Amino acid sequence: MRGTVAHILVIAVINTEIIYMFVRNHQGGKKGWMQVAHSAKKGLSVFAIVALVVMSVPTSVVLAAISFGSVASAANESSPGSTDDITITKPASTVSGDFLVAGITINGGDEVDINSVPSDWVLIERTDNDDDVMLATYYKFAGGSEPASYTWSFDRDDSGDVRAAGGIIRYTGVHTSSPIDEEAENEGGDDELDAPSVDTDYANDMVVVFYAQDDNRVHSTPSGTTARFDAVNPDSSGPRVSSADFVQASAGATGVKTAEIDGNEDWIAQTVALRMAPTASITIVKEATPEHSQNFEFSTSGEGLSDFLLDDDADETLSNSVVFDELEAGVYSITEDVVAGWTQTSAVCSDGSLVSAIDLSEDEDITCTFANTKLSSITIVKDTVPNDAQDFAFSTTGTGLSAFSLDDDADGTLSNTKVFSDLVAGEYTVAEMTVAGFDLTGLSCSDGSAVDIATGTSTISLAVGEDVTCTYTNTKRATFQMVKYTDPAVGSYEFTLGDGELEQDGFPMTHTFTPAGEWGVLSNLLPGSYSLSETILELPEENEYPSWERNASCNGIFSDPSGSVEGEGLALSLVAGEEMSCIVNNTQNAVISGKKFEDTDGHGAEATGSTLSGWTITIKEIVADIPETEEIDESEGTYTNSNNTNESGDYLFLVPPGTYRVCESPEPSWYQSFPTSNYNCNDEGSSYDNGYEITVEAGDVVTGKDFGNYQRGTIAGVKWHDANANGTVEDGENGLEGWTINLLKDLGGGFEWVASAVTDSAGVYEFSGEGALDPGTYQLEEVQQGGWVQTYPTDPTTHTTTLSSGGSNVNKNFGNVGDATISGQKWNDEDNNSEWDEGEDVVTGDSFTFTLLRVVGEGEPEFVIATTTTTGFYRFINLLPGTYIVLENSAEGWMQTSPTDQGGHTVTVGANEDSTDNDFGNIEVIELYGYKWNDLDKNGIWYNEEEGDDEESYEPGIQDWKIHATPIVAEGGEVATTTDRIAKIALTDEEGEYEFEFLGSESGWWRITEDNHRGWTQTYPGGIDDAYHYDVFISPEGDGDDCEGPGWCEGGYYDYNFGNWQWPLINVFKWRDVNRDGLFLGEEASTTEPGVSGTLIGVGRTLPIPEESPEGTPVPIELVALGLTGNNGWAHIPVPQQGDYVVFEADHQFWDKMFPTATRTNPFALQNPSGQTPFYIDSFFDVFAEFGAPAPFPGAPTTQFPVDSFFDIFVDMSVDGTPTPIPAPTAVDSFFDIFTEVTPEQRADSFFDIFVELPEGVSLPPFHLDSFFDVYVGPLSGGEVANGTTGGEYGTSPLRFGNAFTVACSDGLDNDGDGLIDYPADPGCGGPLDGDEPHTTGSTSSGSGGGSNGPISGSFGGSNGNGQVLGVSTSTNGLPGLTIPSGEQCTDYITENMGPNRVNNPEQVRRLQEILLREGFTVVVNGVFDAETLAAVKAFQLKYAADILAPWGLTQPTGFVYLTTKKKLNEVFCGVTRTLSPAEQAIIDGFRSGQGGGNTGGGAGGNSAPGTPTPSTSPADTNDDAPTDNSQVGAAAAATDDTKTDSKGFWGKLRGFFGL
Fold it and tell me: Which long-range contacts (CB under 8 A, 24 or more apart) does 25-30 make?
């Protein structure tokens, strides 16, 4: 709002609740009072009305010029240097909008600080005249709630006193936004106070001058001004301030206004020109046709204008005009917002301006009028009976109308109303399209326009501004549908619907139904009355029992009380739009039946007992949601019944569909066991509460709803003194009184206590009477009493009995006898003499366990109990009389010395007898522990879980490694073994741990060492190049705790660990390349291209070629290791360190090299270590490893078989008597190892190794240096592969050598084209080793002395499947490559006995198979004595029966290769005739005579031919069973010069071992 507040008149008429508010403008020539607000129960509060008026109607009072109103002044004084203030009273009659201007003077000039100014006061100017006086002027517009006075506070910076004076002038008509036009200041020190002139910008400014002096001299009033106030400080020294004003009619200079005083003083003067408020106005008028209450909203632009609302009706809610006054000259804009349904017909201003650009001059009044005309509307309303989603389409005529559709449902798809607005006056038509199933029953328009209900057309004459509503009412026709059901679904039925008095086409309607749920529908029925009748067409005979019931319902209302299938017709009443659905249902009754039985075992599971007749069974229909435990009453359903069970215990009910409870009535002394579901059938807590809740459908037949009942029984027995502990009640054995017997029952989860009874004076107890028992399985036990032991029952010590319904189980007796005890102690047998000597104490503190066994008859003793004690004393109590054995369980750190046989005490005790002093002596043992681990990184540090190492670095323990503890003494500064104590051997377990136990008597020095294993190097203790052992002084006291390493720790010796690093392996496979293509067919083809055993494999390191050697100089190879392929063709050769190696194979006579081929330009030259010649074997031993022989010296190690080495053999390997230096790893400490093969029966099959003396001049065989593998071998770590490829568990991936057999008479080829292949089929072949099939001279063969010879060599220290590691110093038995003499010089090719079901030398088997193959028999050369080989041997024996079987007196083959079979095989091989030795002939003669031949050791088995037991009836008896090894032993014995017959000689011990 601008200017002063308007005069507001509010008239409130409370009793009519109408409020009028008026505003009056005090502007000349304007309207008087203008109503701006009116409220009549429209919820508009007085405050809202006032706010509306203030917003919409500017109400300032406009005066001709600025007018003086009133004035107030004041003065104040304070002591020097203090803070003070001046308070001036508000000028009288000050109201909101008045302009206030103040002048304040204070002595002190620029020494004065004004600290605070009253709220909303604005500084005009402050002027200081040095430090003498200051003048400050301020202004503000008064608000609605001004204070009564205004206070300024101030102080002085110096020490002068503070005096002030001031005044306030009130004006009206001052411009509200820019009240100050101009202002200026002046100061001086004379007697003329000059207020400076200012140039005003506006006419009619009110010019106010202020004068201030540092004294209280009287001012004169300047000419042409009016004095307003003169404020004088009470102090005679002033200061003083005064004010005057005048009106400046025209804009321009005001001139200097001088006030005079009567003397010179420091003074200040200020001139302030006040701007007058503007006086122009704009009036807006609203004219509506017709007059209307519609509100029209206007928006404006221009200073002093605001948005407003107008209407043009007769009420007083809004005015039809508004006035904006006190406007500045300028351009203004008025915009009327568009109102729907109205159109603006004109908008003009009185000065001709456009309403969007009103050019307003000073003091000008302009009126702008906005004229609007209201548009008309037509509303169409759709009303259906009942409300329905059906769409109705309409057509129209007339501008502004268009076709549309309506419906009358609740969704938002279509509306039920259509409005056409903004229409001009004129004629319009609306017509509804016909819809099937609906009738137009009503049509009317609000203005009475003409309608035609037949065509659905409304003709509307629309006036200006008129709103017409036309309503279309449609009534929906009815629909009838019905369905027929039967339960169960059988039969067919006919229904007829009649329309009564209504006249409709197609009535009456007849429809035939089957009970399949098919609906019959009739639509477009007129509302009214109908009838529905039913006729049964067909119903199967079997569905007429037991009975049927019918009911019908329409729209869910039960409407057919008839119980018959063909009931009377139904009366139906259809209303408009109704969709009536009728359901006719026929239901067949259900059957519920069951049986009543006596539950003899009380299990309640099924009707297994006898039936019960005459029992009452009840049935009651129940309503839904009745709790199971709620008792049935008569109001719960519509059906109830009962009947008694017949003589078979059966009952039966016929009931309609529903839910029922079936219960039984109680009978005295009977208890219910079945069913188990509680439905509170009888009184609460009754044992007859259980029953059935059954839901049945029509025609259901429910059976098996049985009820089981039982009667209670008794259990009794006697508790007696079983004096002779035989468990039988006998004469003279009395009952025991006061013993408690507990009764337990099997409740499904085990036996639980149910009752207890106490025996009477006769020892009798009974569970009966009130404690009578339900049927079930019970257990009875007695409560034990001290000093007694139970004798009956004993195993178990309880009775278990099953009680039937009404049963009585007696004689559940218990027998007891006075108990016995056995006790003893455990003492420390320090001197290990098995006697408790004086000074030897009971062992306490440690935990010991003793076990008690009872001797019963001749069988094994029975375990009784075990007890554990830490006091050294044990005692077994509550024992039956009898014989017992007391045993001591072994305890860690102790060894039993008494009883001496490591057994226990056998003790016999009687009733009430105590047996004591059954003591055990023990001696304390000292334990030493250690681990054997695989030192994968060779650093001598064990990474394991106990040390908290990273799991990825764990190094595993090694199992089955022998650790030795050898007693030692120090003699002459050197350590030597001693026989004063027995050496010990420990075997590491699966974790690598081992343990030794030492007696106190074994105290002293011991050396702890480990076995050396080929392919392993010890890394701890010591190091990889400095293997070491432990020397430990063992004593019971230890040598002080040292738990940080090997030593004594907490009562034992710990951490005597050994670390070993496993050498990398070179894995070689040698195969027979049958098809000569250089390609191995794979492991699955091992029978076609088998592995080859006995092949010597060399491993070497290349040496540098000397500088300046000629091109093609062979590359020197240092031989590092030798290996021999096993019977499967494999050899696994360890090498001592990782690096680059060359792997090659030895030459083989009769074999061609097929793979690999040469891969280097320069050939190889093989050198021996240290430049030595090959190692000759010029001496050999036949050695025997005796089983179970006494150790050759105390503490000597034994094998796990055990096999004790009969000889400790060292062979001096020399050339010409000069020892040969052999560097590691080829050094051998003993020339050959002893190998013993053991059959599954633990019989030695081959018991010595034969090493062949090489003839002088014969060296190691040549090697295939034109075929080799270059291989890098890395460290072996778990499954890591040494050469970077997958090689399985060990070392390198397989290096495969392939060879093809080349002997013409044994290669399987027809070399001469005569159609005959190999020896003996081709007569040109003199033998199987003949190299040319057209043979005309002698055969060529080769061999070596001392044992086995041939093209394929075996028996390198025994047979094994994985080959052998030899070292460069190891010799072979019949090395390949040696020349085999022909004819009589041909050494036997088959040297060993062979047969089925025994351990055979695979190489010998392979040789056998090669001969058989060339003899034309079907056999695979694989080194296995399989079924094909057995059949071929038998065929060979029959082929040469005269030479093989006849000497033994046999006619049938045995399949075993023995004396005569070997002889014939070698004859075939060498092509010559052999003669049996006298020893061999003696064996055959002994067999035929039954006298044992040359076997001086005796024993029937020694004379047996292979595969033939000693004949019992005739020497012609044959048997294919495996021979005993006696045959081999007999042959060996007969061939020796050892004729000793006692057990002292070598062969005597041999015979003794085999029982000969």
Answer: 25/59, 25/61, 25/62, 25/323, 25/325, 26/61, 26/62, 27/61, 27/62, 27/281, 27/325, 29/365, 30/281, 30/323, 30/325
Token pair recorded at residue 1388: 């036997």
Tell me the CA end-to-end span of the chain in Å, nearest whole number.
146
Residue 1251, both tokens: 């090493």
H or E, element range at 1026 = strand 1026-1027
Q: Are 1461 and 1435 in contact (CB under 8 A)?
A: no
CA–CA separation, 1341 and 1325 (whole Å): 13
pLDDT of residue 685: 56
For the ranges 86-100, 510-524, 1506-1520, which has the lowest average pLDDT?
1506-1520
Burial class (CB in 10 A: 0-12, 13-18, 19+), 399: exposed
How far is it, in rounded angstroms, from Cα 438 to Cα 456?
Answer: 13
- The radius of gyration of the chain from alpha carbons, rounded to an integer in Å, stands at 68
Task: Inform me whether the pLDDT recorded for 1431 exceeds 60.
Answer: yes
How is residue 561 written in tokens? 């009380």
Q: Concatenated DSSP letters for 1286-1302?
A: --TTSSSPPEEEEEEE-
The per-residue DSSP string of 822-871 comes to EEEEEEE-TT-SSS--TTPPBP-SS-EEEEEEEE-TTSPPEEEEEEEESS
Percent helix, strand, coil in the chain, to 5, is: 10, 40, 50
Half-sphere exposure in the Cβ direction for 432 (13 Å, CA): 30
What's the confidence (pLDDT) of residue 1058?
93
pLDDT in tens, 1198-1248: 333 333 333 333 333 333 444 433 332 222 222 333 333 333 433 333 333
172 residue type, one letter: T
Tokens of 838: 């004086």
DSSP states along 1505-1541: PTT-PPPSS-TT----SPPPTHHHHHHHHHTSS----
Question: What is the DSSP pairing of strand 820-828 with strand 920-934?
Answer: parallel
Residues 6+ apart with CB under 8 A from 15: none
**Token pair 């002084």 is at which residue?**
1033
Looking at residue 47, its pLDDT comes to 34
What is the torsional sign of CA 354, 356, 362, 363? positive
- Pairing type for strands 640-644 and 616-621 reads antiparallel
The closest of 36, 30, 32, 29 to 11, measured between CA atoms, is 36
Q: How far is 758 from 737, CA to CA, in rounded Å?
A: 8
Task: Compute the distance between CA of residue 1213 and CA of residue 1222 in angstroms, rounded to an integer.
Answer: 10
Q: Indicate the burial class of 1546 (C-beta count within 10 angstroms; 0-12, 13-18, 19 or more).
A: middle
Structure tokens at 1493: 């031949």
- Among 108-117, 909-918, 1194-1203, 1287-1296, the least confident range: 1194-1203
Is residue 69 within 8 A of residue 93, CB to CB? The reply is yes
DSSP per-residue letters across 1095-1141: -EEEEEEE-PPPTTPPTTPPEEEEEEEEEE--TTSEEEEE-SS-EEE
- Within a 10 A sphere around the Cβ of 195, how many other Cβ atoms? 27
